[in-house]
Amino acid sequence: MNAKTTGQPPMRRFSLGLQHVLAMYAGAVIVPLIVGSALKLSPEQLAYLVSIDLLTCGIATLLQVWSNRFFGIGLPVVLGCTFTAVGPMIAIGSQHGISTVYGAILAAGLFVVIFAGLFGKLIRFFPPVVTGSVVTIIGLTLIPVALNDMGGGVGNPNFGAPVNLLLSFGVLTLIIAMNRFFTGFWRAISILLGLIAGTFVAALLGKVSFAPFHEASWFHMVHPLYFGMPTFEITSVLTMILVAAVSLVESTGVFLALGKICDRDIRSEDLTRGYRAEGLAIILGGLFNAFPYTTYSQNVGLIQMSGVRTRDVIMTAGGILIVLGLIPKVAALTTLIPTPVLGGATVAMFGMVVSSGIRMLGSQVDLNNHENLLIIACSVGMGLGVTVVPTLFNQLPQAVQILTGNGIVAGSFTAIVLNLVFNLRRKRSVADASQPQGAAN
Q1: Whether the Cβ atoms of residue 230 and residue 119 lie closer than 8 Å to each other
Q2: N or C: which end of the chain has fewer CB within 10 A?
Q3: What three-state secondary structure class fits 295?
Q4: Which residues contact 246 (CB under 8 A, 6 or more apart)?
Q5: Cβ-based neighbours of 202, under 8 Å, separated by 6 or more
């Protein structure tokens, strides 16, 4: 069955679209909450960040579903902000300011749009041993953020108070229980339900202020460049380009999986249009002061479960996200979540990022190969080491610090270089050995 544009009655289409929104909602709102909290945004700024993220998720989804000769893969995909960008955005914003974050996002989006046609050729520099290492590094660097939130947040005078630990571990326990005893849709929204339950308990304990919700308006318009004019810093730009490249590798897997589900052959031209749509979505994220966007894999599971592969359902989901993004009251509700509650959920989510990287390495990489193990060991070690000891390369020239000043860049650069040294050399050796004697004469 091919992915069709229409085919569902209006009410059924709306309910199916809403189900897609619920499946990705926790992931969509938790990224701005984590980044905004880490960068010390005000409640008003945080509410804007959440609402503009929801709206941009909807627009990005429609860009990908509306296929044409220039952009859009035309598959039933939902786009959301990528978790891969959380660590880099926090690091860039903390060191250079939030305007540099959006300068880097804009540059990354332009890079993807311009090189979408060439990315199919560049993808060989990002085999599973590289992407798996990068995703693992990103997850490991995020874990301290989650643990700080569990205690109540950095600088909190009551950091580690029993009530904070009770809330955070309570949320984590509920999420684990739901994943143990439920399947399908309920398991898919376990994070969302954990956040809701934790916030409810925190409200009973007097730990929730409803002032941001009361002060928020019912409707607002988009404010491009809400946080000011973007600024550009080379290390930050390289970091975000790397994030975009990793996200495209992940999206490629989703595209190919959906192609099989929808009985459609995915060609290189389709991938190029898909990459270009994601690049446009990243540019929108930079202009609207939102996030880089990627294809969400959790919605693929929902398509498999429901058996509904029509694009009209995804268009409806995109429309719902846009409407939610225009209602600040909805965004303000999510900002009521106390920091310990958020920490309890993010321990599981960030741990899953690490698990995702390990799964990529375990299922797609030959771990019996000593050279692959060395690539993983050195890249993860370098990435985590630079994150823990960021002053190690401070006395080197500025040009060198472009590659060494950020743990994700340092680890990823190590993985790419070692993959070239070991695996590409081996491929050439095998190719040469397979040639008949005298073939080169």
Answers
A1: no
A2: C
A3: strand
A4: 84, 126, 131, 134, 135
A5: 167, 208, 338, 340, 341
> pTM here?
0.68
What are the residues whose beta carbons fall under 8 Å from the beta carbon of 213, sequence distance 6 or more?
329, 332, 333, 336
C-alpha span between 339 and 341 (Å, rounded): 5
The rounded distance, in Å, linking the Cα atoms of 349 and 316 is: 27
Q: Specify the DSSP class assigned to residue 294.
A: E
- SS3 labels along 78-106: CEEECHHHHHHHHHHHHHHCHHHHHHHHH
CB contact set of 17 (below 8 Å; sequence gap of 6+)? 313, 314, 315, 316, 317, 319, 320
Identify the CA nearest to 85 among candidates 244, 290, 251: 244
Amino acid occupying residue 113: V
Percent of the chain whose predicted confidence (pLDDT) is above 90: 19
Q: Name which of 52-61, 92-101, 298-307 the model is least confident about.
A: 298-307
Q: Cβ contacts of residue 196 below 8 Å, gap of 6+?
A: none
Residue 406 token pair: 């950020």
Q: What pLDDT, on a 0 to 100 scale, did the predictor assign at position 407?
A: 76
Q: Tell me whether residue 181 is exposed, middle or buried, using C-beta atoms within 10 angstroms of its C-beta: 0 to 12, 13 to 18, 19 or more.
A: exposed
DSSP reduced 3-state for 132: helix
Distance of CA 142 to the CA centre of its chain: 12
Beta pairing class for 293-295 and 79-81: antiparallel
Task: Determine contact, residues 185/305, Cβ cutoff 8 Å.
Answer: yes
Q: Smallest Cα–Cα separation from 116: which of 285, 259, 252, 265?
A: 252
Count each helix (H run) and each strand (E run) in the chain, helices first: 20, 2
Give the CA angle between residues 334, 340, 346 to the nearest 5°: 75
Give helix 234-261 / helix 98-114 axis angle, nearest 10°: 50
Q: Is the dihedral of CA 138, 140, 141, 146 positive or negative?
A: positive
- As a whole number, mean pLDDT of residues 236-243 equals 88
Pairs from 262-269 (Cβ < 8 Å, separation ≥ 24): 262/1, 262/2, 262/3, 262/75, 262/76, 262/309, 263/1, 263/2, 264/2, 264/3, 264/75, 266/73, 268/120
Q: How far apart are CA 426 and CA 418, in angstroms?
A: 12
